[in-house]
Each structure stands twice: as structure tokens, then as C-alpha cells.
Amino acid sequence: QVQLVESGGGLVQAGGSLKLSCVASGRTFSSGRMGWFRQAPGKEREFVAVIRWRGGITYYADFVKGRFTISRDNAKNTVYLQMNSLKPEDTAIYYCAAGLSPTSYDYWGQGTQVTVSS
User: Is residue 61 exposed (0-12), middle (13-18) or buried (19+ Cβ within 10 Å)?
Assistant: First the structure.
């Protein structure tokens, strides 16, 4: 049973930083990719960033480029999302997801709330 558990969310003022973590258990992810998504109240879930377990190639949504950094620790089966220069519009529930293939995400975490006050 694969489980993804996010942590690190919270309340921060605009301009501040948070670092989210996502620990994967139930299998070792040596390939595939891990992504971060977010969903704000009344909006659809949107892509934030993705990283490949092998090689560490990353890709970001335009609205977080230069502010957020995704990274992984293969030995710990953990993916991180460092979020800097946070804005009130970054307020959302942040989810991590694991994709075993290039075309889908197969496992999702329960989400962690990030609230940015102005």
C-alpha cells in the first residue's frame, strides 16, 4: 500500500517562506516522477512542479518559477517544495502525487494547507 504524507504547511506572511515535505512509503521510487499540485478554494487543482526520481529533472508552472524549488532525497523517498516570496494567491491546499508513468499520477497525498496573509 503506497502512502504519500505531506507536511510543512502553515500560516505565513506575504514574502515569507515555507518548505513542504512529502514522504512516500510502501515502495521505493527509483523511477517515475513526483509532482506538487495545489487547490485554492473554489478553484480547480493546478500543477505546481514536478521532479523525476532518476536524474532529478524538474519542471515548474510559470507562476512559481524563480520562487519555488522542488527537490528530492532518493534515500529517504522524500520530495520537498521550498516556497519563497510567498504571495496571498499562493494560499491553497498543496498535494504531492507520484507518477509511475509519464501519463498519469497514480498516488496522491492528503494535502497540507498553506495560508499566506497579506
Answer: middle
Per residue in 30-45, pLDDT (tens digit) is 788 999 999 999 999 9
Q: Is the dihedral of CA 81, 61, 24, 29 positive or negative?
A: negative
58-97 pLDDT, tens digit per residue, is 999 999 999 999 999 988 999 999 999 999 999 999 999 9
Q: 82 is written with which cell numbers?
A: 521550498
- Between CA 86 and CA 106 the distance in angstroms is 29
Could you give the CA distance from residue 55 to residue 30 in angstroms, rounded to a whole number? 10
